[in-house]
Amino acid sequence: MNFWETKSLAEMSTAEWESLCDNCGKCCLHKLEDEDSGEIAVTRVVCELIDLDSCRCTRYSERCTLVPECLDLKQHDFSGYKWLPDTCAYRLLTIGEPLPVWHPLISKDPDSVRKAGVSIRSYAIKESQVEDMEDHIIGWIK
């Protein structure tokens, strides 16, 4: 059996935890919250620290210090984070769902996320290229 099928997120080692990230980059997309409705808009605007080819943070160990809005997901309860993408391994495992077939732990291919069209690589833009984030909304989370 695979570790993600037998352990809770809290029981995982740091290496196991980190291997769950598929490097899609979706959690690094900026979100905007409507103050009246509470709805969250997802933009195609991404943090300056992300490498758009690999969809990985270039300063991962320092990210929460360099970008105060960045969250260390391991420190939080996932049940309340509806802004995480539906495909996120952390979110899927929290609700008892399996990892998708394209997840690198399943496919054994680190490029399977890009091949499956799940990564932000083809559409994300850095925040330094944007004047108004509202012009770059790509969807809503209800």
From TrEMBL:
Q: Entry's InterPro entries?
A: Puta_zinc/iron-chelating_dom, UCP006173
Q: Which family does it belong to?
A: Belongs to the UPF0260 family.
Q: What is this protein called?
A: UPF0260 protein KEF85_13850
Task: Give the originating organism.
Answer: Methylomonas paludis
